[in-house]
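Input/output pair, single chain:
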Amino acid sequence: MSAEAANPGAPLRKRGRARIDLRRLGRVALLGPVSRDRLPDAIGHVADAHRAHHPDADLAILSKAYVLAESSHRGQMRKSGEPYITHPLAVTLILAELGAETTTLTASLLHDTVEDTEVTLDQVRQEFGDEVCYLVDGVTKLEKVDYGAAAEPETFRKMLVATGNDVRVMSIKLADRLHNMRTLGVMRPEKQARIAKVTRDVLIPLAERLGVQALKTELEDLVFAILHPQEYARTQALISARDGAQDPLTEIADAVRATLREAGINGEVLIRPRHFVSVHRVRIKRGEMRGTDFGRLLVLVGEDADCYAVLGELHTCFTPVISEFKDFIAAPKFNLYQSLHTAVVGPEGAVAEVLIRTHRMHKVAEAGVVALGNPYTQDGTTAAHLAEPADGERADPTRPGWLSRLLDWQESATDSDTFWATLRADLAQDREITVFRTDGGTLGLPAGASCVDAAYAQYGDEAHGCIGARVNGRLATLSTALNDGDTVQLLLAQDASSGPSPEWLDHARTPAARIAITAWLDAHPAGPAGPHRSGPDAPRPQAQPEEAPGSRARTAGGDPSVAVDTPGAQVRLAGCCTPVPPDAIAGFTVRGGAVTVHREECPAVARMRAIGRAAVGARWNAPDDRRGTADYRVTLVAESFGRPRLLADLTEAIATADAAIVSATVEPPSEQRVRHTYTLQLPDAAGLPGLMRAMRDVPGVYDVSRAQQPAATG
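Output:
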């Protein structure tokens, strides 16, 4: 299964191995007479794939698991008409191709038995041990009869908690979802769309964070085909039009091979076709596709030092495109990914992107945590027993910081809808930074995190008493945004009665911080019991509405997505700054008693405070209370260099992000620079960061920002 195969269903396989037709397995799925010394024919492909990665693997346990799975699922059929056993076989084959160890494959064969048959967890434990039982239990769904509408979010919560103890749980879930997405065509269109959206919002980000690119890229293509069929068809036509044509990358690949031979570097040079979504993104970015845009060169070598030797030869013998160089070996991504990225100009001016990595880096880039084997053994081989540290807790060296943070905040999100919405927002943050503590420890935080987030990450609820920070040795306010590599020292108040200000929510980016601050404010509607804190970011006195203790004033009219502290007031969102969740907001009473809500950084807020206008407390309602509301409007300003087709490319990027253009203006060019102002309508405010990223990716665009002044109408 290639991470970048142009065919979204193409499996990764070693050279010379026959293509595996999973649908044909249905005809041999029923268990026939099998001799004791060989596996059933139905899992022969699984055995071959497993032995390719683990030549000494004991296949007896797989045979035993297959016998139980086949007999328990016998008579059950999938909606496609195939015997049900073809599904666990296909899921297991996906994991075997990625190099999963025997325990994972055993659990994968059994992953639906407890959920869909009479087999119990006790039976699985008795026959296969605690480890397999834990993995099967981790991917077993919760019953809708018991949980109702909360079954899906609570099932994901259960899986994530299980993943925190053993990342192999999520590996099985991702492979399970991939095969279900491959066969989703038999479902009703509305159910296909619902499953595809959950896959897009939750499973694909999890696959990315766990580094399982082979699954992530195919899931992206399958979701793309369901949610954007017209764009998918256009991309498919672009790829199909090149079938049989001479690939311009071939000539460059030959030149690279010759360069490495002359330098005495032993390396393998491959052409990697881009997958559908990658081709689509390149088309959006470049406009007109070049012949070399449909793939990339991959250079595989033996040692880390060889990677840099290859890079030096390429940059010496070819003209490099310096802006395309990235070193993910010296600074790996937080999902384990390591590689050198560059681009060189080949014969006749063709530009080729090049990836340089070792064979082990490539395995991890494709399979992520799956390639690490059993996380409880030092050598990555299958263990008979789990590692037990001195404190009795299971040790998992593959548990990344983002997962630890997710597991921490989910404990406080007792409401299923809050957990579901917060999980999607958390997974949408696709970059991570590391900051250093003065005691020598580190904190992993999402990009854009502030000192408030660092305080709650380090101290938990004790951070309620934080009064300031030192960043790189200098005093800083709690609103200060942190950068990768900063050193932060957090200052705590001695007064135990101190508590957070409502303004902290304006600067909190992590779910753990927001949940903790909100819980404290709900429990202390009148503020701290003792004297007000002083110091950086100390809370300003807030006027309290006349309401029951602990309650929140709700809107009586106007925009239902916002609640204000003026009961019965008509509420409207300001057109000058177009706030959307989760922007920090402030309200001001205008003529007629209505309350206009602005973003905190809107210049209008500063002007009104400067003339002594008192702010009205305003906050976004919970997701449940916003259901059924109108789409969100937002005004964005794009700064760019002038070029042909720029406006067309920008509008296409906006449309691809599911945003509708309400109005647009383009100012006359000044010194070859153009300013575009768009008022857009979004179906979901959570899509705003992705929309802004898509606009920034348009060639020639060097900045996209939120408007902070009245937008001109077109």
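The CA atoms of residues 471 and 488 lie 5 Å apart. The radius of gyration is 28 Å.
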